[in-house]
User: Fold these one by one.
Assistant:
Number 1:
Amino acid sequence: MQYLFSVVDDGTGITGPEVDAAIDVFNDRLRAGGHWVFAGGLASPDAATVVDNRDGAALVTDGPFLESKEYLAGFWVVEAPDLDVALALASAGSRSCHRKVEVRPFR
Amino acid sequence: MTEAVTRAHRDEWARVVSALTRRFGDLDVAEEAAAEAFATAVERWPADGVPPNPGAWLTTTAQRKAVDRLRREAKRDDKHREALVVHEPQPTGADGAIDDDRLRLLFTCCHPALAVQARVALTLRLVGGLTVPEIARAFLVAESAVGQRITRAKAKIKAARVPYRVPSAEDLPARVSSVLTVLFLVFNEGYLATGTGPVRPDLTAEAIRLTRLLHALLPHDGEVTGLLALMLLTEARRPARVAGDELVPLDEQDRGAWDHALIAEGHALVRERLAAGVAPGRYQVLAAINAVHTSARHMHDTDWSQVLALYDLLVRIDPSPVVALNRAVAVAELDGPEVALAVVDRLEPELAGYHAFHATRADLLRRLGRRAESRAAYDRAVELTGNTAEIACLVRRRDQRA
């Protein structure tokens, strides 16, 4: 079973080499436990561009789809046998990156 | 005969649902098959007689119903075919001490990933065996809302794969605490029901029944014991707590009308926890406070210094303004209403919208002879109270002094 951990930044998140190091430790733990699937950090929402080609005429607009104080700062995709294991991992992940983590199962 | 089915429903419902959930790995299938099995019992037992082991009969019948349903669905839909695969029983926790399907069911229904109201509805339905209309009536919400809460919760359990097992020793205290929160909510809703009627004995009884079950499954958990004792000592006072349609406060209750068997049982549980010599949690301290109150034959025999010492302990565990407010009542008895009023007034910023804050203030002001202020505080308390029996009590106390 795979879960998406969305890292939510509400403007209070801190960054720096110490946070990066803590995330590296957490990533190593994911790999060692066989939970690692994929992960990535995202650039600021200011760098986002929205494309809408539902009508066959692509409309390109600057900025994020939703303007909000909270935004997606990164994500993990993890393999876990059940939600309790996923929540325990997310708890360690949240601690490592100093941000809230939303846990959502893949279908 | 209906009595036999009713008794079996009370005693066996949770066992049937939990056993089926483990076998089929699906709460929906388990709930529906259990309901069908009990409906079959209503039809068959009057003619065939009550089977020697009603629980085993019900579980077997429910399992057949579940297999029938899954076969029917498998013909229509390939997705259901995998549900026919019998799930291997999950290995128990490392300590292996607790192995009861009902405990797994309780932990699943009270999982912290579910909203509290959903936990309450799901627990009453799947563990307590209450019907959706019964739950809706008890909480004064629409049936459709209760049905939706239960459906959504079951869907989340399935989609997010909430495991069907007793949590690991490491997670156990937090998870037990989540179960206790649900049981205490059910009890309190019965004890201080919103709307008309002072108490809902069906809800308090259900909460006690489920807490007894949890206590039987986790006999060494101090907080489970504490909550059971707290409920028993509170329930024991129920016969004296209401006169007509009016709530009777502790200091005016006829103590002879208390249920002394429940008090003895509650006191024994509190003594058991004291003997354990382990630092108590919130529910154990609350139970101990209630044990002191129920030990006093008259209000003036109450050992207030012990009550205050216990509240001091509680403040350290739970530094909430509501606890500080209740502590002030003991302060009033020991140091007088003036000292207590000063304590209470400091809580105003946090408790200005809480009826008990104004009721406590009103009583202290009354004792200090500050009648106009007391009356105004009673008025504010009445405005903020949701329970008609409590309003009647507040109005009488207010007018007594006018």
Number 2:
Amino acid sequence: MAIITKQARKKIWAFLALGMFSGLLLLPLFLSLPTGASGADPVPAASAKAADAKSVEKSRDVWYKTEGPVVGAPAPKTTDGPKDYPRYNFESRVLLWVGLQQHLYYGSFVLAVPIFCMVVEYLGIISKDKALSRKYDQLAYDFVKISLTAYSLTALLGGIVIFTFLTLYPTFFTYLSGIFRPVMATYALLFIAESGTLYIYYYGWDKMREGFLKWVHVSMSVMLNVIGTVLMMLANSWIAFMQSPAGVDADGRYLGNIWHVIHTTLWNPINVHRLLGNMAFGGGVVAAYAAYRFLTSKTDEERAHYDWMGYVAMFIGVCFLIPLPFAGYWLMREVYAYRQQMGITLMGGLLAWLFIIQAVMIGALFLTTNYYLWQGMERMRGAERYQKYIKYMVFVLIACFIVWLTPHTIVMTPAELKAMGGQQHPVLGNYGVMSAKNGAINTIITTTVLSFIMYQRGNKIPTVKWAPLGNSFLFGFFTMAYINIIWLAIYGYYIPANVRVGLSVPQVASTLSCLFIGVTLNALMLKGAKDTGPIAWGQISVRSQYALIMLATSFTWMMGLMGYIRSSVRLFWHVNEIMRDNSPWAFTHTIGFGANMISFNVLFFWMTILFVFWLGSLGAKKAPVTAPSGQKVPIPASSH
Amino acid sequence: MAEQINQVSTGKKIGFAVISLIIAAAYFTWLDYSLMNMQGLDYFYLFRK
């Protein structure tokens, strides 16, 4: 009886906790309701006459083209001086750049990791194998433990960013916070809700380990992620507004509709792109953490645990990396639809060379992913049969990588230009166009999918009756997918540009067909497959762990680069076409300076995150999970 | 069972591969055509000229 009472009490407390957090989640909505309502219908019918009597000034929204009452002041016209741009003896923009970039790195990390936790903890609950269930639970706990210290740093960096803004760009910040006042208040409340939920989620882990309470715990992680995603979307609305303003008139005066200000044309593409990017980045950082722990492990058990952790994190990261280019494509398409000139500046003008650097980074990411998968096959007995194919895959990947990074035109001296006979090289110039590049990147992604399928089959032999047919179908499907992708790339050279642009859609669809049909068919074939030996977690080369670190560093560098590109495209505007930047730094930096700054930010982030890892390891208990019986956990190969 | 799979004759394997290639070719042609059509573009533009 006493036990029942105790359980009932626990349930009541759990419901109360969930109710409280649901309430906290909904609180900002209630608080912002009057503002939203006044935004949606700013002049109630009853008081319309009175408003008319006072002759409320109306104006037109720059984006939505709707009329609304002028509620805010016009965007300030700043001048270069201590009033609008107080400064230290340093470039203010660079200081803000560092602060914002660091805040973004940590923010992305702490938003992504709880999503992993939620998925992994759920997998642990539904898993029927108790040992595996414990393993998943420990992994989810490890994930959240890393993010906890990072969470404090994120908040700290957020504070630094606000102070930097207030100190160095007071006029601009006052204008922006005037428009986004209800959003900022909501943001602050949600941040409190996020912090509370995170701390209870983490510290309540042991108390809510079993039965019903475990479900409450997982529900809390869902809530945590809902709050985190909304927080990210609110922060995105500020940058989206700066790039493609809406909800204000041509003078920058707020027209009373907060939803228009939030929901600008680039808001949703940025939301999707950032969410996917955060997940890929978070996966990369956790994989790097696992690699670090693997490299510093003293026992085979620890090595096995962190090898497995690195693999899971890498897998999640790559799952989100694959759709990321398509989300980027959507974002760019919306940029072109919003202002064609902005798109041209990005991809064909001032910032085009940064996209070449981005291409190199994307290529490096996929090469590294493939390399890690091939290395991972070393820990499976039976995977040797696939080794002979790897050299051909390396050739395909390298050939495509070279095409992928070939620039359309290059910067040359007049003498070089003359020697080459024009801006484009007579042979290599043919590979610098989108037809070739689309073909190259789709071939790279398809090859990565193939590597993954090989990895899945590494220690398994299909035993289903239709296995010969399935194998033949996989062979036929991938062969035709490669032929189709390359055919479309070649076809693009012979048709006009307006038809050619459409070819990218079936190219992407071919790649995605391989991903979904290929992986699903392979998984079906592997049901009840014969094992050629267990996966010997921990028995992997040290090089593979450096590949994970390389993967994470590439993600970090690319995030810095793409953030810089997106921000730079505003050129000399604080808010595009609304509020001009009149500071002495309203110019676009050279590529070299930009690259150095990105590298500095990456280095700074990794130095601080290593500190976070070290802090995490101070309180770390010995990894309690042992490899399931029958699995070999040998010492990793040490000679490389 | 795994041994039985390996016992499938080479001729049969080639037959399966050819059928699979034909099915995949038909699928990708349909994919190219329909996705271009959805965008209001003509996949066979070059051949109609």
Number 3:
Amino acid sequence: MGAHRNVTRGYADELRLFGTPLARTGLAALVVVFLVLPTVVQNDFWLSVLIYVGITAIGAIGLNLLTGYCGQISLGHAFFIGAGAYAAARVGGEIGLPLPLWLLAAAAIGAALGGLIGPFTLRLRGHYLAIVTLGLVFIGEHLWRNLTDLTGGNSGTPVTAGASIGPIDFNSLNLFGESYSRNQGWFWLVWGLVALVALLAKNLVRTRPGRALQAVRDRDQAAEVIGVRAGQYKIGAFMLSSAIAAMAGALFGSYQQFVSPDEWNLLLSIQYIAIVIVGGLGTIFGAVLGAIFVGALPALIDRYSEAIPGVQTSVGGEGFISVFALNQALFGLLIVLFLVFEPRGLAGIWLRIKAYFKAWPFSY
Amino acid sequence: MTAFLQNCFAGLSLGSTYALVALGFVVIFKSTGVINFAQGGLLALGAYLGYTFSNNLAVAFGVAVLLCCASAALVGATFERIVLRRMVGQPPFAVIMITIGLLFILEPMITAIWGFDQKQITNPWNIRTVEAGGLVFGVRDLWTIGLTAAVVAAFFVFFRYSSLGLAMRVTAFDPEAALAQGISARRVYATSWAIAAALAALAGILMAAGPGGLTPSIGFIALAAFPAMILGGMDSPAGAVLGGLVIGLAEALTRGYQDELFSWAGSNVSVIVPYLLMIVILLIRPYGLLGTKEVRRV
């Protein structure tokens, strides 16, 4: 007779990704939703919101590895996202490499740039790092505006990177005699990549490097004492997070087909920080959850601005607050409220609910 | 030579504003160990309150300056009381993010109340200038430098000789020992936020009286004051003033010689000069020019 399904008999059991039947059922349900959703929701607006959310989720997973797991503050995420978008424009658009290659090229460029910043993380902690990465956003903005050959300068650049993996072209998907719209194809592409990146990240954090990162986060000196090379892991985390951010940027650019330097500003970095805080620091699942809640917010506010009292629907129109300002205020408010009242984020709430049912009828 | 001196003068005036903001950063950092990203919001709030007092309520400019500093101080102390007090003992990440959150709440509130368009504060200086030795000095710039010098001097006297200043220094040095001596940490924290906010408001209204006028983006100047604080050393008030002046000079000189020397680096290089300087100084002297070296014990 086998042990009960919830019994854990060692670390290996604890670390299993989909150990319990419940987790396996949940996974199966998610896969079904993933496959079916674009055929049910064919509305281009909702699909594009979901695609942007997916791209944001990829970037947020990257930031969460750095901030949530390794404890390094970065306000410079927007810089790496921008770098990725321009990489896609040049490598995917001009040179015309296929999707897997331009995605990898963007990741490599992101990692290289992250590696340049890495040495700072060795000497600087906490506050200093926040300010240096803040400077990075401004220096980056200057670069994007002035490297006109690479970025098109202030007027921006079109991104004509293709989206085909082998024979499958996600821009005009044709499967089993059915043809699908660009948004449907991109939904499958982006969320497939979200699953891939999440799986990679999850596998990273449940193995030795992941535990090392968390040791560095909790107390870097103590980590060094027990034999973790804190410096290497900090730089590694920076490179990995930048690589993932650049991939998100590359996807963003080639989905939007046009990018300009105005997009890679401090607000974008803050949006990502809001996502990892709202979702839950130090959880992969939380980064995706946060991206769904916070990432969809700007698009929804923009769409329903007429229904929200006091919001201007056009420049100089009625109402006292613009859509942009409302977004900004909401990000700020979400960060403050979650940090004060629910520091573990949405993932923390979810885990509490789960623990409640697991322990029911006992309250602990 | 004249052009060089003229640029230096502009740099000193700009640097004075940075020095005021950076001093505010240092005051809060020293006593509470928090870097206050919301300083830019407080600066903008102070400037706009000054506009309301001076233009809408037609108060004399000098009184308007005092009033806006006082109300900004009140807002700063309230922030500390309502939000930051809850975060005592939390990791620096959480606290920094809280202040960033506050910044991003304040900015839209300001545009919601006062709008986006540029405003001119009624002030006694306007664009009047005086000439001396072939150089043209803006009256506002002279006042900015003078007021900053006076405020900085007053700050150092307060810090050095008053009992509250002593309490603040002790709390910065060792909070537990200070508590054991019966010093109220709450009062110290609230005071440092109030001082920082008042300094920011002063910087804001001085900036707003200048040729740039008053726009919502005025708060960005506080972000450029971060490099000033790092340059001088995060825990050194004197360093903050020095850093502010150095950054201001560097920025003004770069702007002055943009066409001759820096055209290869693209337009508006002066905007990123503070950050580049900061990166250089961090590589050479991570604790700043006058800061104390951080000792890490295992």
Number 4:
Amino acid sequence: MNTDAVTTRLLDFIRVEFLWSDEGREIDASTPLLEWGIIDSLRIALLQSFILNEWDVPVPAALIDAKNFKNASCIAAMICELDKETVR
Amino acid sequence: MDFAMTSEQRQRHDRLRSAIRHQLPGRRRTDPGDHFDRDDWGRTADLGLTGLCLPEEFGGGGLGALDTALCLEAFGQCCLDTGLAFGVAAHLLACAVPIRDFAGDEVRGQLLKGMADGSVIASNAITEDSAGSDSARLGMTAVRDGDHYVLDGEKSFASNAPLSDVIVTYAVTQPEAGFLGTSGFAVPRDLPGLSVSGPMEKMGLHGCPAGRITFDGVRVPARYLLGSEGQGRTIFQHSMGWERACLFAIYLGVMTHQLERCVAHVRSRKQFGRRLADFQAVSHKISVMSERLEGARLLLYRACWLTDQGTADAGAVSLAKVAVSEAAVANARDAVQVFGGIGYLASTGIEQQLRDAVPSTLFSGTTEIHRNVIARERGL
């Protein structure tokens, strides 16, 4: 699993699903998703479902925190780490 | 798959129903200002109801979610004061559960024994005037200052608040972390700067007083932080998982009692020379009430069983919550219709059940919010 590829796929998902009514708003791997309110309490569940469907990685509730969901780069790093633990 | 209670569950259920009938308030509360007092609360504690799912080392019953729900169902079925049952369940599930699972040893030792034996009444305070369904967008703040947190803000619709000794509440500790920047606290009621108003005048559940709570620079010792900073959402979701699975069992009990009364009424009352039960329009209404009740009961038992297995997902719990609360309103409405003019009279308690049922589609997440969850689980 490649972190850059995961980040790109996450950003595509976020643009399409969360920013569809917010045309023109640009985001990148370091955009603060929580601080800007792009991920909220409803959308986090959609994101969890997407991560499970796309990479077969369940995100345990204990890992849903501000550090892991700060931006797309952090989320991708968490997914890759969880994937590695599953493989082991 | 086994749909029967174990003999242990059956015995506990029967024993509890008998004890509740004999020892708890035998009257409905129809006046908005008429709510439970410490004597009522003490009697529920004597029956073990205030500590059902608390560890035995603290005087609790040590029960899991399904057994807790079965006891709360008996409470709803046999106690005429549904507001009291609601207040006890809110104390237990929205307050004691997060303290049980997230507080440090010192605070658990300080609070849980009293919460189980009835000497400590707890109130859950998350709702704010601008944060209802959008409960993650809190305005209340908690700022770390040495060994304390300083809490500022106002909470509303806090059940049990006017009589509470401890308040489980949530505040923003990391604004930059959005909805994941909240933290949970168990706050002793007697701290300076904390004030409670109420009780609020409500449509139903009169036995349970609700109030507003103002935190004006309340200095809370850091040991009362639940879990770690930023874990507020996780803690709240955890407690709501228990509340949504177990608390609504009260309404299963209420609906069971209500249906028994409706059946007895239509079998005995005659109009046009026939029993009401002999009119198909009436008997079908009883059938539909049964369908709603039994379907909701299965979904709730399943949600509790999944909680005990550690595999409960939000969708299963939401299905149960919506099924029970919507059934409670629909059945209460039908019960008034079955009883006719008599059901409209406050003295029969039939109309009271409708007023007690309506808030069930609002608290612990509205029906609409839970249908969002269910739709999401279906991939929408």
